[in-house]
Structure formats: structure tokens, C-alpha cells
Amino acid sequence: MLRFEVKKVFSKSKNRIAVIVLFVILIITGVLTINRVEYVDESGNHSVGISAAKNLREAKNEWAGYLTEDTFRKVLEENRTINNSKEALSDDIEEQDKAYAKKQGISSIIDVINYAFSEYRDYNYFAADNVADDEVKTIYEKRISTLKDFLDSGEETFTEGERNYLIQQYENLETPFYYEYMDGWSALLQNISTFILFLALVIGFFVSGIFSDEFQTKADSIFFSTELGRNKGVLSKMGAGFVVASVFYVVFILLYTFIVLLVLGTDGANCPIQLDLWRSVYNVTFLQAYLLIVAGGYIGTLLASILTMLASALTRSTPTAIIVPFVVLCAFPFLSRIITLPGLCSFFPDQLLEIYLDIKDPGLITLGSKVMTIATVLIPVYAVICVLLQPVLYRIYKKAEIK
Question: Among 96, 172, 359, 401, which residue has the least CB neighbours within 10 Å?
Fold first, then answer.
């Protein structure tokens, strides 16, 4: 019966068209993500795509290794040499591009230095130009001291527990950082939330008619009059919704990841996320951040699908059910911009699809004496909600009356 219910979902022409639309979205989003990685050659010409990723990887991996004091000193020396070149000192944009081309291998390391010697909520693009060689030995300590200065400034209000948590997370980060080309992962993480949103909306479209279509086609009298209609039949429909949501999510996330990393490269998976998101309190690698984002997206997609099926069972209307994913995943973010409830908005289910933003600039929550980031609370809480909604969905449809 499960197989039959899944086949019914894709027997509809509108759902088959939606699959094609999903592939188009996959291609467009993949291309946009790939184009985030740009390379400037020695002549000042810009390029994106496979060749750009290959050349940028070669340039950056010349500096691969741990970012020790000695490495930072060499980077400062290289940076000064390039800054004093005739290309860098020229007023011609093309000449300046040629100078920038020489910096691409060290650009991410310069970013680390710039962040270390900038204010907490600021980024001084030229900070590295004014840093002395003997100052770079304090870079990792500067990250912690800058946070403490920010917490003492009173710009934002934190409880004592939250202050201690932030400082402890900063102090627990393993240093020195290991550095290599990681731009493929960086681009992937920046765009994946957008793709997950589109994917969740399309999956919601797929499952919107699983329960209501029996009423739309007037087949409910046959369905509920059968021996297994009100038990195994209902479970098969629930199983079909779970299978469609899970399989499509996993397959398309893997396809998207494969396309992007095939072109941009998998290097840097084990580099700390702080090479890209300097202020993050998540002491994770790019790969671990990716898995966390994908896990949050899956729970968010599953929740939207279950709520869609609930609406389908309750209203017996497929068009009404189709609206649910848009309300859950798109309307809530809009509400967060017009209502003054920032604490509450942080717990809206749409935040499950925005784990990247929490990794970048986390929200904190205190449960008892324990301080945690919002993302690490949302994922297990909504996972439990998804489980609890299953018997509700089963009971609602099982008790449906034939009209």
C-alpha cells in the first residue's frame, strides 16, 4: 500500500511538472553558488567556474598549513611587497586588479588578520596594512580580548551565564587554525539555505494532496469502507508523505552538494568555520557546519510537510494545504520584521532553514543554568514535535466522516 500511495503522488501531471521545476531550481542555484568563487589572473581578467576554482585552489594551497606566528609574519611581508608594487600604487583599476591577483593566495589569511585587529562588530579592510610583525603573535588572543571588550562595552545585554558561555567557547577553540583552500565549502554554506527553502516548498506541494485527494475525487467512501482503510491505509498515506519528503530532501541536497563541490572542490572540509565566520561561537569545521545546516533543514522540511498533511486531512482541500508551507516558512520571516518580538521570532520554525545565520551570529538561550545556541535547541525540539504530530495526523484522518 505504501508503494501505491507514493505512485499516486507522482501519477499527477502537476507533481511531475514540479519535479522538473525542482531540477531547474537545482541547476540555477548550483550555477549561482559556483559563480561565487572568482579568480583574477595576472593580467587582471576575472573568471568564475571550474578554471577559476582550480587556479584559486592552487594559489591558496601554496600557503596551506597551520596559521602560526611565522606564517602570519610571512603573509605580512608578502602583503607589504604587493602593496608597494607599481600595480598596487597605480590609479588604474586594471593595474590594481593585477596587484590583487598576487594577493589571492593569502587573501583569506589577511582576512583573519583584519578581523583580529578590528572592533567586534566591524571589519577594517586595511588593518593588516598597519599591523607590525611582532603583533601577529597575539592574533588568537586578540579574538578573545576583542569579545571581552565588546561584552564590557554594554552595546548588547547578556546575562552573566551568556557572557561566560561566549568567552568559554572562544577560549575552547583549537588554535592555531589549519588553513587551505576552502572557498567551495564557503560558497556552498552561503547558498544552501536558499536551496533548502525552495526544496521544502516543492516537497510541501507534493504531499499536499495525499489526504485530501480522496475527498476531491469522491473516493473517500471506497477508501474508508475497505477492511484496512482506516488503519493500514492511513498509515500508508503517512508513510508515503514521510518517504516523499525524506527521499526528495536527501537526493536533491546530495545533488546540489555534489554539483557545487565537484566544480569548486572539497578542500577545506576540516578547516575551522572561523576562517570564514570569524565571530562564530560554534567550534566546528566547514563539514560539521554543513551537516548541522542540512539536519536543521531536514527537520524544517519534515515539519512543514507534516503540517501540510494535517491541513490536507482537516480541510479536505489540496489548495488550502498547499498554502501551509508558505505560511510556515515564508510568512513567519515576514512577521519577524514587523512585530517587536525578537525573542519569539527566533523560535519560529523557519529558523530551522536558517542555521547558517545562527552559526554566523548566534542567538543564545538559557535553560536552567545551561546556556545554548538557539539552533542546538530548535533542531531537537522540532524533531520531537514532528514525532508527536504523527499520532495526531493518524487520528484525524482515521476518524474522518464520509460525506
Answer: 401
